[in-house]
Amino acid sequence: MPFDVEPGINLFTNFVEIMNDQKIQFMAINAFVDWLYSAHPDFIEVAWSESPFMARHLREKLTGLIKHHSPEGYMSIEVLGRFVRQLDYENTEILYNYILKKHWRQ
Q1: Could you write out the DSSP letters of every residue in the chain?
Q2: For residue 94, what are the contacts with CB-CB under 8 A and spacing of at least 6?
Q3: Cα–Cα dist 29/19, whole Å
Q4: Is residue 1 part of a domain?
Q5: Which of 8, 49, 54, 68 has the most C-beta neighbours closer than 10 Å?
Q6: What is the pTM of this model?
Q7: How many Cβ atoms sit within 10 Å of the Cβ of residue 66?
Q8: pLDDT tens by residue, 6-59
């Protein structure tokens, strides 16, 4: 990553502070798009590893979206987009931290 983060510092908070840099904005969008196209099937369990009950709830939500919006049963870009839009702020923050950690490319 192009910025140093102290252990225990929330990446999302740090990221918001530096969003005025256009290159950083582009790279963050790129990380999100990369995640949309290559989300690992267990991303929920990894991102919410500290909250297994929430992980289970979100897995059920994603499974429902897949059943309703993906006749083939795949985790499509549309399904992932709908999933993100249904998250509250706290869970969006958890997901974005995961995306920044796993999909950030220089």
Answers
A1: --S---TT--HHHHHHHTTTSHHHHHHHHHHHHHHHHH--TTHHHHHTTT-HHHHHHHHHHHHHHHHHH-TT----HHHHHHHHHTS-HHHHHHHHHHHHHHH---
A2: 47, 48
A3: 11
A4: no
A5: 54
A6: 0.77
A7: 19
A8: 555 566 666 666 566 777 778 888 999 999 999 999 999 999 999 999 999 999
